[in-house]
């Protein structure tokens, strides 16, 4: 350019000017503008779908989004909090990218599992240009980014095929779902932590399929009764009552998925399990005195905490009562994991005190307070309320003297504890009485086993310092015991 004279420089400038504004170049500008404004540059998003966060979950409710559109996403980040049929569970993701579009807002309920709830794009892509699918009404079958409940690597105490290991609740669910042992899966996490990605990798390599879930069986109708049963007479036609008018004292109560699940499981349990019952009166004066001793020493334990410990010890001394169903197979559990019934605004939930026979009463009290508080706030993790080998329901603090409870399958027993009250014993002495009613699965537990357990528990409650003794079996000294 510098070597050209004035005329040469002018010719070069003139030619460049003609090239820049030629009709062909102008046409290319038009095509480029049309290309940028068309859908050809739209980014295809990666679908994020409503996950199944519990074995019985079919739909959920998004409580809160913790990521906004345009936010970067790293593996392990929590996307949102979801109300399942059991509790509120935080959902995290194992993919990396950018949150592009939230398709389902907060407080959206009855969202079917598999429904598209958000879109993300890969890092470096224009998230604002993500392509929105036309039909969002039905769940889709495309493979979404891997999502799970948020987990903290802990030493999980489990029963079943998953075994013990350094992993979180979602890993435990996968191990149990596919019938794997933790030792079969190579771990890649820090300090040997088993990650969900490790399990998914092994499942993909071996092309494993999940084990089918076994529903609680419903009782069969006897053939003779079914044959002779006559159809009920036709009811007379009655005009439908007028609908209630707003303001007449009626209030609609939302039937949440959690309450529907509770109703379904209890109905299946009551109709499909052969419930048998046994009630025993326990005198708990020494138990109350022991609690006073703890209190004077600055140890805050409740009567319920002492009962949990007593039940756990009784289960070790009567291990036949500590059993659960694995499909059609009855299994004696190696661990004593006691579920406790806790009432929450959303419904009844049963957090678990795992290994209750191996920890002290003070530790039990701490765990119960923590579990109950987080249960009422819907902040329990899945492995904190799923599982368990035996359940306790205590209504004594509400003034209930005696009641019976429905078995929590696949467990085979639940203890209903009433309140304490002063009574005169057979010798005319004033004592403190407490009624305990055991509901047990007659198909799994024989009557004499249930009686042995109740009498063992009675011995411990009436002499609570015997909880320090080792496990032993108590036999009933009755000539007819063998016939039960």
Automatic annotation (TrEMBL):
Key words, A-Z: Acyltransferase, Lipoyl, Transferase, Transit peptide
Every Lipoyl-binding domain range: 45-121
Leading EC class: transferase
Protein's name according to its UniProt entry: Dihydrolipoamide acetyltransferase component of pyruvate dehydrogenase complex
InterPro entries: 2-oxoA_DH_lipoyl-BS (IPR003016), 2-oxoacid_DH_actylTfrase (IPR001078), Biotin_lipoyl (IPR000089), CAT-like_dom_sf (IPR023213), E2/Pdx1 (IPR045257), E3-bd_dom_sf (IPR036625), PSBD (IPR004167), Single_hybrid_motif (IPR011053)
Cofactor(s) annotated in UniProt: (R)-lipoate
GO molecular function terms attached to this record: acyltransferase activity
GO CC terms: mitochondrion; pyruvate dehydrogenase complex
Domain of life: Eukaryota
Species name: Petrolisthes cinctipes
BP GO terms, sorted: pyruvate decarboxylation to acetyl-CoA
Pfam family, one: Biotin_lipoyl
Domain Peripheral subunit-binding (PSBD) span(s) in chain numbering: 166-203
Ranges of compositional bias, category Polar residues: 137-161
């Amino acid at each position: 350019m510098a070597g050209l004279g004035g005329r040469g420089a002018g010719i070069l400038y003139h030619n460049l000017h003609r090239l820049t504004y030629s009709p062909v170049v102008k046409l290319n500008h038009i095509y480029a503008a049309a290309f940028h404004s068309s859908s050809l540059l739209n980014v295809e998003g990666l679908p994020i779908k409503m996950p199944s966060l519990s074995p019985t979950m079919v739909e959920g409710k998004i409580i809160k989004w913790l990521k906004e559109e345009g936010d970067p996403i790293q593996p392990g980040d929590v996307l949102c909090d979801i109300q399942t049929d059991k509790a509120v569970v935080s959902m995290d993701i194992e993919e990396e990218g950018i949150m592009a579009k939230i398709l389902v807002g907060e407080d959206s309920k009855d969202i079917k599992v598999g429904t598209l709830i958000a879109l993300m794009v890969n890092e470096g892509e224009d998230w604002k240009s993500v392509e929105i699918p036309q039909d969002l009404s039905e769940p889709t079958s495309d493979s979404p980014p891997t999502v799970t409940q948020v987990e903290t690597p802990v030493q999980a105490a489990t029963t079943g095929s998953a075994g013990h290991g350094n992993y979180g609740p979602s890993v435990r669910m996968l191990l149990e779902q596919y019938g794997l042992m933790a030792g079969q899966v190579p771990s890649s996490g820090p300090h040997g932590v088993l990650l969900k990605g490790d399990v998914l990798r092994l499942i993909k390599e071996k092309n494993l399929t999940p084990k089918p879930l076994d529903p609680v069986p419903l009782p069969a109708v006897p053939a003779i009764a079914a044959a002779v049963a006559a159809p009920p007479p036709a009811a007379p036609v009655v005009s439908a009552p007028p609908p209630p008018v707003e303001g007449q004292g009626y209030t609609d109560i939302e039937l949440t998925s959690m309450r529907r699940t509770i109703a379904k499981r209890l109905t299946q349990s009551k109709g499909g399990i052969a419930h048998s019952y046994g009630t025993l009166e326990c005198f708990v004066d020494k138990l109350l005195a022991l609690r006073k001793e703890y209190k004077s020493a600055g140890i805050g334990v409740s009567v319920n905490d002492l009962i949990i410990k007593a039940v756990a010890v009784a289960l070790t001394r009567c291990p036949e009562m500590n059993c659960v169903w694995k499909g059609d197979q009855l299994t004696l559990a190696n661990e004593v994991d006691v579920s406790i019934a806790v009432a929450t605004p959303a419904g009844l939930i049963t957090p678990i005190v795992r290994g209750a026979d191996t920890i002290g009463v003070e530790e039990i009290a701490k765990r119960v307070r923590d579990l109950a508080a987080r249960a009422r706030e819907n902040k329990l993790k899945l492995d904190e309320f799923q599982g368990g080998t035996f359940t306790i329901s205590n209504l004594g603090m509400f003034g209930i003297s005696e009641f019976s409870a429905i078995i929590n399958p696949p467990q085979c027993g639940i203890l209903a504890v009433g309140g304490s009250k002063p009574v005169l014993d057979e010798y005319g002495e004033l004592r403190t009485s407490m009624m305990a009613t055991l509901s047990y699965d007659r198909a799994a537990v024989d009557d004499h086993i249930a009686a042995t357990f109740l009498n063992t528990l009675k011995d411990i409650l009436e002499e609570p310092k015997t909880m320090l003794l080792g496990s032993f079996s108590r036999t009933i000294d009755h000539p007819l015991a063998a016939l039960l």
